[in-house]
Amino acid sequence: MTPVPVFIYHSVSDDPEPWIAPYTVSPKAFVEQLDRIEASGRTVVPLRSLVAALRGGPPLPDRCAVLTFDDGHEDFYWTVAPLLTERDLPATLYLTTGAIRVPGGRASGSMLPEAPMLNWRQVSTLDALGFELGAHSRTHAQLDTLPARRLADEVKGSRADLEDALGHHVRAFAYPHGYSSAAVRRCVAAAGFGSATAVVNAFSSAQDDPLRIARLMVMADTPAERFQQWADGRGAPVAPFPEHLRTRAWRVYRRVRSSLGRPVAC
């Protein structure tokens, strides 16, 4: 199994809200990126195929890629889904369940700033179209700073929200902000999720952790040359590798701030 680029997107829009703009690519850029993946000879496979391979199942094609999308922005329904359906490409969409709206109404609430988000009817339609839907917590909290009871509610609760709405099991999870810890990963496994994705900005590999799958974040300012490198299998490290000391220090700092009632904004 050669290194696999697992791309993480958020919003695909020409007119994003200011807070999500740095994490947004235009539809034109998104189409160009899909073209680059295709031209590189890669096959876009479902996330579940990568997870199965990581767990000793059927091998993946020699050159493949995975597409994932976080949060649950409404432009996935209106822009991304038609583009992917036209090319018959699979993708996994991770939903912050507290941000999903009742059609014509409001959402139950999340820490995400105001933006056009999906409603539950659109979520059900995307599920029927064959897109894999995963959980991204209830409120988009920094999970590695939470006490055990709140952590369990964010993780188990988001799975329950989706399964109640969709009527089938949900097996994929993504850590908000990419933040996790050993305790968070144990909670995710105990909640019944079969996989979880981080950020890491690295390629996944045959030795990657199914509960901490590495992804490459595509942002508004990601140069075309860098994306081409990723599509070619270059320009980023290969997971897994030990957690950096600065990552641990950053987690401790955020926990202290959270305990003082002054959480670090992300």
TrEMBL record:
Annotated compartments: Secreted
Record keyword Signal present: yes
NodB homology domain sequence ranges: 63-266
PROSITE patterns: NODB
Protein keywords: Signal
Protein name: Polysaccharide deacetylase family protein
